TrEMBL record:
InterPro entries: Peptidase_S54_rhomboid_dom (IPR022764), Rhomboid-like_sf (IPR035952), Rhomboid_protease_S54 (IPR050925). It comes from Psychroflexus aurantiacus. The chain crosses the membrane at residues 15-35, 97-113, 119-137, 144-163. This is Rhomboid family intramembrane serine protease. SUPFAM superfamilies: Rhomboid-like (SSF144091). Residues 202-213 have a biased composition (Basic and acidic residues). One of its GO terms (biological process) is proteolysis. GO terms for molecular function: serine-type endopeptidase activity. Its main location: membrane. GO terms for cellular component: membrane. It is found in: Membrane.
Length: 253
């Protein structure tokens, strides 16, 4: 298998992972909500309840629990987009990132949250947006920097959700997710795009020098080649004399 086939195979696997796993994650959110509605359960008590032992289960369970269809819908699209970006650009650390982010953001919410049940996947949305943004800027890889800018364009307004505001909104969960994303963007290392050239990587020199570029000397002066009197180095033998005549003519005038 040649290098081109390996690259194609690599991108196919990345695209498959970037579609399959995000869809399954979002589908799991909807299945939990469907079970809750279908069988008239109330999973709210499985959310994060700050500084109470019973609330620790919510560190893992709370992202799968939503208060209503609108709450679930608003979280589903950003979860799908951001997890797809995570699995495509950081495939080698995607699951580790999700697990660590889930634990740290949930734990921070448990520590700083108001005495109420905190539910919903919005904390993970903030975590993913924060992680992708800061990780991309830190990488100095043009693809990942472009991803950071796209995240800002799509979800830059999320930053206002990290501040106290509308009642019933867990700004503590949002802030915890944002902080967790920032922390893990520096801690977790990814080699998925390490083989791709970064902006400061020197470009390789071509094996065969361009014929047009041969007509410029080291100082950048244009010295056209004479096909009849071209020496071994690729420069005209009488180019110097012609240049001197031209310079003399200019100074006399």
């Amino acid at each position: 298998m040649n290098q081109k086939d390996l690259i194609v195979q690599h991108h196919r696997r990345s695209i498959t992972a970037a579609i399959l796993w995000p869809v399954l994650i979002v589908l799991s959110l909807w299945i939990v909500y469907w079970v809750e509605i279908k069988f008239r359960f109330n999973f709210t008590s499985f959310g994060v309840y700050p500084r109470e032992m019973k609330g620790l289960v919510g560190i893992i369970a709370s992202p799968f629990i939503h208060s209503g269809i609108e709450h679930l819908y608003k979280n589903s699209i950003p979860v799908l987009v951001l997890t797809a970006s995570l699995f495509y650009f950081y495939k080698d650390i995607a699951w580790k990132t999700l697990l660590y982010g889930l634990i740290l953001s949930g734990l921070l919410t448990w520590l700083i949250g108001r005495p109420s049940y905190h539910i919903g996947a919005s904390g993970m949305v903030y975590f993913l947006a924060s992680f992708l943004f800061f990780k991309g800027l830190k990488s100095r890889n043009y693809r990942l920097i472009a991803l950071s800018l796209i995240v800002v364009f799509l979800y830059g307004s999320l930053v206002w959700g990290t501040m106290p505001g509308k009642p019933g909104i867990s700004w503590e969960g949002h802030l915890s997710g944002f902080v967790a994303g920032l922390v893990f963007s520096f801690i977790l290392k990814s080699s998925h795009f390490s083989s791709l050239p970064s902006p400061d990587t020197p470009k390789p020199k071509p094996e065969k020098e361009d014929e047009f570029l041969k007509q410029f000397d080291e100082q950048g002066n244009f010295r056209p080649l004479d096909p009849e009197n071209e020496d071994a180095s690729g420069y005209s033998q009488n180019s110097t004399a012609e240049d001197e005549d031209q310079v003399t003519y200019t100074s006399d005038s």
